[in-house]
Amino acid sequence: MSSSTTVPTARRRTLRLAAAALTAAAGLTLTACSGADATGAKPAGRTDAGAAVVESSGAGSSAGAQDSDAQAGSGAKADTKAGGTGKKSGGAHAGGGGGAGSGVQRCHTSGLTAAFATGEDAAPDPNASGGTTTSIVLTNKGSSACKIGGFPGVDLKSENGGERWSLARSSKKFSSITLQPGDSTDFTLNLAMTKEETGFYQPAFADVTPPNETTSLTVKWPWGTLVDQRSATHPGTFVNPIG
């Protein structure tokens, strides 16, 4: 009895040990598989992490942009004082730029003189078949610099002032220039001159109104007669911009 009882018990123990060994082996296998998966998951995890880093970096840049905005916002808030100063400074800069620009006022009629350029090369050719030109010179007679640019108004008028002709403007582009005291600039008039005894207009004076001004300078007309095109849509006599 004792012997038969011992054998089954030994068998049971052996089976248990075998089962335990199998369980342990299975556990090791599972652990190994799990380790392989974890190892396999790590690259995936790294890839994902990499993607996450990229996204995070994108989100980070977007977050960074938001932070940047926030910082800019806080900076703007912080700079509200500076912003006030900054804006003033910017304004001052713009003002200073305009003040190289803005401190420099536009040229007013009272600070200018006007005269026809009458040098040998400046005289219009009365025999030119396709039109000719003359120049009017504007000089800064003031004690400070001034800015001028654009189209002056030019009205030709007869001796008694009854026959007036407000000249049309060309389509040329223009820019502003700064005249120091004593400096001059000019603009040209395209002229359609004629020697015919009919259909002509004889100016006696030209009233020159500087850009953005309402008062004019009157200069004597030194040249001959013009083709009378006061009612023409595209007259041959017209004004070009300053400079």
Largest sheet: 5 strands, mixed
Task: Provide the gyration radius in Å.
Answer: 46 Å
Specify the helix fraction band. 25-40%
Shape: elongated
**pLDDT < 50 stretches:** 1-101
Q: How many helical elements?
A: 1
Order of helices and strands: HEEEEEEEEEEEEE
Strand content: 15-25%
Average pLDDT across residues? 71
Q: Decide which structural class fits the backbone.
A: alpha+beta
Order of strands across the biggest sheet?
Answer: 1-2-8-13-6
N-end to C-end Cα span: 133 Å
Strand runs, count: 13
Topology readout:
Elements: H1 2-97, E1 112-116, E2 132-140, E3 146-148, E4 153-157, E5 164-166, E6 168-169, E7 177-179, E8 184-191, E9 200-201, E10 205-209, E11 217-220, E12 226-227, E13 238-239
Parallel strand pairs: 6-13
Antiparallel strand pairs: 1-2, 2-8, 3-7, 4-5, 4-10, 8-13, 9-12, 10-11
Describe this structure in words.
- This protein has one helix spanning 2-97, and strands at 112-116, 132-140, 146-148, 153-157, 164-166, 168-169, 177-179, 184-191, 200-201, 205-209, 217-220, 226-227, 238-239.
- The chain is of the alpha+beta class.
- It has a 5-stranded mixed β-sheet with strand order 1-2-8-13-6, with no helix packed on it. Strands 5-4-10-11 form a 4-stranded antiparallel β-sheet, with no helix packed on it. A two-stranded antiparallel ribbon has the order 3-7.
- A hairpin with a 7-residue loop joins strand 10 (205-209) and strand 11 (217-220).
- The longest helix has 96 residues, at 2-97.
